[in-house]
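Quiz preparation item.
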């Protein structure tokens, strides 16, 4: 399984390490979130993506979705499948594809124009696509949010998405003996603990507590670090001497 952290356009050419937008590309054909997906490479590269799984409705996770769908649009039956929860789809219909912010690609697809095929997903309901099994599970964020356990033969990788401290997701993750890695957020430095709790994100200290809920041999990759606080968060994570810790870099690919 290859997982690529997609860069944001503002950082793609500048060597910036910050997370402005959030999206992951799996085996070049499946995306988790679409923050920077519509800014990826050229049309040929974007056209390889067949499925998008959204975690939640916050703009850094869906920002370039309309642009992506317009870019890969073809006037034949084949189109991208968008997988999302009822809450997230409701937000997209009301607030994005509403014929004001953007044309209603969802309604247009229902009338026969193949912009996007929509599939509603439920927590704990496994979806099988492109040789992978994706297990969505609720996490603890300020809007309804799904994290994903992504399973291929012999390997499972977890992408919890934005979350505060949680137990249910890790309880489920422990049921996968071949869990190799977790892409876990570390948004704010420790002295912003109050903001992290209100916004349901993690600090390095909280990150360490979540790490302790899994087997110590699992690799943890720190992501979603706020650009303003990048150096502080990375330094604080380093001082914790956590086992199997890596700092995720936008544009980098990881093979498992």
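Solution:
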């Amino acid at each position: 399984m290859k997982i690529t952290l997609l860069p944001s356009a503002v950082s793609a050419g500048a060597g910036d390490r910050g997370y402005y937008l959030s999206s992951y590309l799996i085996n070049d054909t499946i995306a988790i979130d679409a923050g920077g997906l519509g800014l990826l490479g050229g049309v040929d590269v974007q056209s390889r993506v067949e499925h998008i799984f959204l975690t939640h409705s916050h703009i850094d996770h869906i920002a370039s979705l309309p642009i992506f769908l317009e870019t890969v649009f073809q006037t034949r039956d084949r189109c991208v499948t968008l997988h999302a929860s009822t809450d997230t789809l409701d937000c997209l219909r009301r607030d994005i594809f509403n014929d004001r912010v953007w044309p209603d690609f969802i309604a247009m697809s229902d009338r026969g124009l193949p912009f996007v095929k929509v599939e509603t997903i439920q927590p704990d309901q496994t979806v099988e696509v492109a040789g992978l099994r994706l297990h969505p599970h609720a996490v603890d964020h300020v809007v309804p949010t799904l994290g994903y356990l992504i399973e291929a033969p012999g390997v499972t990788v977890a992408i919890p998405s934005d979350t505060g401290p949680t137990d249910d997701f890790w309880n489920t993750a422990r049921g996968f003996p071949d869990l190799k890695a977790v892409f876990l957020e570390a948004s704010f430095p420790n002295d912003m603990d109050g903001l992290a709790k209100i916004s349901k994100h993690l600090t390095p200290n909280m990150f360490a507590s979540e790490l302790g809920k899994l087997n110590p041999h699992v690799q943890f990759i720190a992501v979603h670090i706020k650009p303003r606080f990048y150096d502080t968060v990375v330094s604080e994570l380093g001082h914790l001497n956590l086992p199997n810790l890596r700092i995720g870099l936008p544009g980098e690919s990881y093979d498992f």
